[in-house]
Amino acid sequence: MFARPFIDSVDFANNGRELCGEIPIVALSRLSDLLANSDGTLSYRVTGSREGDAHKLEIELEGLCHLRCQRCLDAFNYPIEIISHLLLLPADKLDEIDDDVDAIEATTQLDVMALIEDEVLLGLPFAPRHPEESCSASLKDLQQSANPFAVLAALKK
What we know:
The protein is α+β, with helices and mostly antiparallel strands. It has four helices and eight strands, in the order E-H-E-E-E-E-E-E-E-H-H-H. A hairpin with a 2-residue loop joins strand 4 (41-51) and strand 5 (54-68). The model has no long low-confidence stretch (mean pLDDT 86).
């Protein structure tokens, strides 16, 4: 069984702690509908820091997941390489920050696996697909050979 780590986010950042390891992709249940299969693992590193009064977390993720191409429906390998910087704020301050700043609520029971899963979900493409030159359903193959309006014109005669 895989243990889910929880951290006190402010204490973690205040003391400059670091948490790293690997997660089996199958443990990230919210990803399952988006993947072709749940094989593989993700390496992660969560580092806390403090700059003045600001508490921050840096999340680094690396691995490989298997997505389904939206053009041809074949599975393909999609590399995960994410580095996120998150500002820790009290819940009442989250509405006051700029949209350019990524922030989460500072909590004493932050679920690290849920945070990692959120970052992966945000990092995946909306409509994943192979590069056009390697997709089995390239746009050239999808073009019709006969113009459908030419068929209608022939019926008119």
